Amino acid sequence: MTLLERDREAPSAWKGSLPVTSRYTYGLAGERFFRALKDEGKILASYCPKCDHTYVPAVNFCERCLSELTEWQDAGLVGVLHTYTLLFVDFEGQPLDEPELIGFISFGDGGIIHKLDANPDELEIGMPMKAVLKPQKERSGSILDIRCFQPVNK
Amino acid sequence: MGMRKVAVIGAGMTKFVRRALETPKELSWEAAKMALDSCELTMDDVDGVCFGTAPDAFDGVHMNGEYCSDGAGAWNKPFMRCFVGGGTGVFVPIQGWYHVASGLFDVVLVVAEEKMSSYYPHAQAAFLTIFDHTTERPLKPNLLWIFALEMNRYMTTYGIRKEDIARVSVQHKRNAANHPCALLGEANITVEDVLNSEVLAWPVQRFDVSPVSDGAVALVLAAEHVAKRLTDKPVWIEGVGWHLDTAYWTNRDLAYPRYVEYAAKMAYDMAGIKEPRKEIHIAEPYDPFDYKALHHLEGLQLAERGKAIELYLSGAAAPDGDLPICPSGGLLGVGNPIAAAGLMKVAELFWQLRSEAGARQVPGQPRRGLAQAWGDLMQVGTVIVMGR
Amino acid sequence: MTSRINHFPGTSLNEQDFADGKVLFVHDALKAEYAWDTGIAIGTYLAGLKRGVILGAHCRHCRKTVVPPRTVCEWCFRPMSEYIPLQDTGTVNTFSLCYVTWDVRRIKEPEIPAVITLDGASQLGPASLFMGGIMHKLGEVNPEQVHIGMRVKAVWKPEKEREGAITDILYFKPLPKEEA
């Protein structure tokens, strides 16, 4: 047998996984942003006066000039539909029972990716969309405290 | 070779802690901001950004370089993440150096970050992933194995006693007591404390090992004409070197780090150093384990094979000795957020050579220092020589 | 600069802060499952293990025999010349007594990982920077009596249970004195 010939007895693959389990802290800005969402039902923005740039979700430094951001504001619950997609497969490529709508709702100079509750035919890019929050006692300080976004006139 | 001179002109770092509240982005930002403020530059002055972080598994973020890029100041800049495992912390300033030495950029921001506590429950489990998936991982190896095996081989080859190796840990942890960012500075630790600590993987005991940590460090590098305009105390990067041995780690002589020797020779040649033991005044060899400092000092030609321990026994390695070793406190004392820990050593040289190291300042106004790191599956050596 | 800076950032937390709900956090796990192709050389190596043979690869140019086998010689960058069956005996190059599992659980009886230089593979010597060893575990031995230089032999799984894996060798045990 030559060295480059494959042994017929050889197992073709070795199966395994990478055991990576994580616990992520929310950090300086995340603490403030997600506690406001959980306790007050607010989506917060932070503003850099030097770069005239508004970050949503709020962050504690400006990525353009690295200044600390001290001007935090309530961004309201209504943003603008920047783009959306209708998903027919899940993340493993399996067909979904019901197609799922995902959108990018812009707030300030940033925005949030989330699920949409809407009839796909009614959606228009540029239309106002409102965050639907879970009731306060069910909120845990998570992006899922926002249940979804709906067209404002729904 | 037509290379430009490159200086370090600013440095910043976060505390090294066991569990940080800050996200990896935020740690990166804190260090980067501090480095820029220290030399009174802003992001407008920065031409490019180099970022270093070790395996993505620790921070738990795939493409951690891209994830941390906002905190590292990479927005709208040429940006590149480098990764050579534990060697990353000393490789990332080398990467910054060639960006500037080549004439490509005048000012480069260099940032290294690690948030190991994100791996939960214990970061050490992530190291399983560095072993070969088919021929080694089925044996359920533990990172400690590889170090314990190397330490045993090193001790046995040269007849070095554990109680002597413990002196390294004691010296570094005592040095770290004067570092404001240190996680494990212990002014009063003794050899007995090390020898009485829990046996993890004989011959490795708890206090032979550096702690899992979170933190970030940043440097500002500048070309000569910029550095001279901005500071009257530039610290020049005089030599850099890096080298690789076989990744089949069981096919190597574990008693001697040849890859460090070759990396050091590359750096010494560039710096014009003929007799390293006389021409290097301060050394920060990589010390995730106490024996590793000895192992590396030998590879760095700062001691003969099997003789590095004599630097500690004679007092030469102490802050007031003639070759202070890890005056920062090293990974054993300051902490080991992997990539950040390597860059911390380079920052220490910067502070020491400018006589700005506060309570850790070594006497005699050292003129030249060396920092080294090592990584991947124990086969990468990275070396930087700096002088004023 | 440290002498000119009074405040260093970085906020330290302890486990109690998590338990007490003082900080927000989220758990997640990377879903990373693989079927790694064994390839030519490692596939052959695993097939050999199933038959009870440890295979190395030999480079005629460098006169080196390496294990695990590979298709390319790292030193001269030519294809390896041939597979060579090695002995299942060898010498302990180094070892540890490990009281912690890979996921950091404490154990009373130590595991004994070792690098074993196999008979038939190239040996580390003054003329060679190379050593033909593999990582495995030692068994059937009093931990206190393990030493570098100890002669050992593979203990194989019964043939029917072998699957073509490094774990087809259960561990290496000391060779009796007369065979050492």
Give the SSE layout.
The complex is a heterotrimer of chains A (154), B (388) and C (180).
Chain A: E1 13-17, E2 21-25, H1 27-40, E3 44-48, E4 53-55, E5 71-74, E6 78-89, E7 95-107, E8 110-115, E9 128-133, E10 146-151
Chain B: E1 6-13, H1 24-38, E2 48-52, H2 56-59, H3 64-67, E3 79-82, H4 88-101, E4 107-115, H5 143-158, H6 162-176, H7 191-196, E5 199-202, E6 204-205, E7 214-223, H8 224-230, E8 235-244, H9 258-271, H10 276-279, E9 282-284, H11 290-299, H12 309-313, H13 330-333, H14 338-353, E10 368-375, E11 380-387
Parallel strand pairs in B: 2-3, 2-4, 9-10
Antiparallel strand pairs in B: 1-7, 1-8, 4-7, 5-6, 8-11, 10-11
Chain C: H1 15-19, E1 25-29, E2 33-37, H2 39-51, E3 54-59, E4 64-66, E5 82-86, E6 89-95, E7 97-100, E8 106-111, E9 113-118, E10 133-137, E11 151-156, E12 169-174
Antiparallel strand pairs in C: 3-4, 3-5, 6-9, 6-11, 7-8, 9-10, 11-12
Query: Level of helix content of chain A?
Result: under 10%
Computed structural class of chain A: mainly beta
For the record, give the distance between the C-alpha atoms at the N and C termini of chain C, rounded to a whole number.
61 Å
Most extensive chain interface and residues per partner: B-C, 73 and 58 residues
Q: How many beta-strand elements of chain A?
A: 10
Short description:
The complex is a heterotrimer of chains A (154), B (388) and C (180). By secondary structure, chain A is mostly beta strands. Chain A has one helix spanning 27-40; strands at 13-17, 21-25, 44-48, 53-55, 71-74, 78-89, 95-107, 110-115, 128-133, 146-151.
Textual characterization of the structure:
- The complex is a heterotrimer of chains A (154), B (388) and C (180).
- Chain A contains one helix and ten strands, in the order ββαββββββββ.
- Chain A is extended and about 70 Å long.
- Chain A has one domain (27-151).
- Chain A is mostly beta strands and 154 residues long.
- The model of chain A has no long low-confidence stretch (mean pLDDT 94).
- A five-stranded antiparallel beta sheet of chain A has the order 8-7-6-9-10, with no helix packed on it.
- Chain B has 388 residues and is of the alpha/beta class.
- Chain B has a single domain, classed as Peroxisomal Thiolase, Chain A, domain 1 (3-Layer(aba) Sandwich), CATH 3.40.47.10.
- Chain B has helices spanning 24-38, 56-59, 64-67, 88-101, 143-158, 162-176, 191-196, 224-230, 258-271, 276-279, 290-299, 309-313, 330-333, 338-353; strands at residues 6-13, 48-52, 79-82, 107-115, 199-202, 204-205, 214-223, 235-244, 282-284, 368-375, 380-387.
- In chain B, the strands form two sheets. A nine-stranded mixed beta sheet of chain B has the order 3-2-4-7-1-8-11-10-9. A two-stranded antiparallel ribbon of chain B has the order 5-6.
- Chain B is globular and about 55 Å long.
- Chain C is 10% helix and 36% strand.
- The longest helix of chain C is centred in the N-terminal third of the chain and has 13 residues, at 39-51.
- In chain C, 40% of the residues are buried.
- Chain C has 180 residues and is mainly β.
- Chain C has helices spanning 15-19, 39-51, and strands at residues 25-29, 33-37, 54-59, 64-66, 82-86, 89-95, 97-100, 106-111, 113-118, 133-137, 151-156, 169-174.
- Chain C contains two helices and twelve strands; from the N terminus they run αββαββββββββββ.
- Chain C has one domain (37-174).
- The chains are: A mainly beta (154), B alpha/beta (388), C mainly beta (180).
- At the B-C interface, β1, α1, α5 and β5 of B face α2, β6, β7, β9 and β10 of C.
- β5 (199-202) of chain B pairs antiparallel with β7 (97-100) of chain C, so a sheet runs across the interface.
